[in-house]
Amino acid sequence: MARKRWNCEALVAHPTRTDIRSTITYDTLVRAGVECTSANVQSGGSPYGSVGTSPALVVCSRGVKILPDTTLQPLNAGPDKYDALIIPGGLKGAEALSQSTEVQTLVREYYEGNKIVAMICAGTLAAKTAGLPFQTVTSHPVVKNDLVSIYDYKEDSVVVSNDVPNKGTLVTRYVDGTVFPFAFKLVELLCGKAKSDQVREPMMFPAGSYPY
Question: Each residue of 93-110: b (16+ CB within 10 Å) or e?
Answer without folding.
Answer: bbbbbbebebbbebbebb
